[in-house]
Structure formats: structure tokens, C-alpha cells
């Protein structure tokens, strides 16, 4: 399983991710990316057919703002909170 979120603090709105994986990433009014699947909460599993796009977007982000994990990101927020 793969889950993804964009770290919006480091995203520089370069626009590569949405071009590479338009079904996974879109941009807010400022051009900052977010994951469409779950409104950038990282709790929805990326469908198998989009995993390749996800890998490509991950490789293409110049600021490493795309985070990918095998578990939902909720677990992390709970720990951090
Ligand atoms: Fe931002 Fe990286 Fe996408 S800088 S717009 S998350 S490719």
C-alpha cells in the first residue's frame, strides 16, 4: 500500500507533480500542490494503477516535498499531536 501527502511548507509550486500525476496531485490558489485523493491528509491508499505516476512524481519533485509511506499519515499526526 502507498499513501502520499505534499509537504506544503517546502513545496515551491514548481508544478511538476500535477503534470506527471494529474490524477493524484492538484494545486491550490497559490500553486502549492496537494494530494487530490484525500485532500492532502494522506489517509487514502493510492490506487494500484496510479502507483507508477506516484513514483515518477516523487522522483520529479525538486524539493522532495512529496511524501510517500506504506501506512496512512494519520498515524504520524497522532504521534506528533
Ligand atoms: Fe510542489 Fe514538488 Fe509538486 S515543489 S508543485 S510538490 S513537484
UniProtKB/TrEMBL annotation:
Cofactor: [4Fe-4S] cluster
Entries under SUPFAM superfamilies matching the protein: 4Fe-4S ferredoxins (SSF54862)
Gene Ontology molecular function, alphabetical: 4 iron, 4 sulfur cluster binding; electron transfer activity; iron ion binding
Stored Pfam families: Fer4_13
Keywords: 4Fe-4S, Electron transport, Iron, Iron-sulfur, Metal-binding, Transport
Matches recorded under InterPro entries: 3Fe4S_ferredoxin, 4Fe4S_Fe-S-bd, ET_Ferredoxin
Source taxon at top rank: Bacteria
PROSITE patterns from the UniProt entry: 4FE4S_FER_2 (PS51379)
Protein purpose: Ferredoxins are iron-sulfur proteins that transfer electrons in a wide variety of metabolic reactions.
Protein name, entry field: Ferredoxin
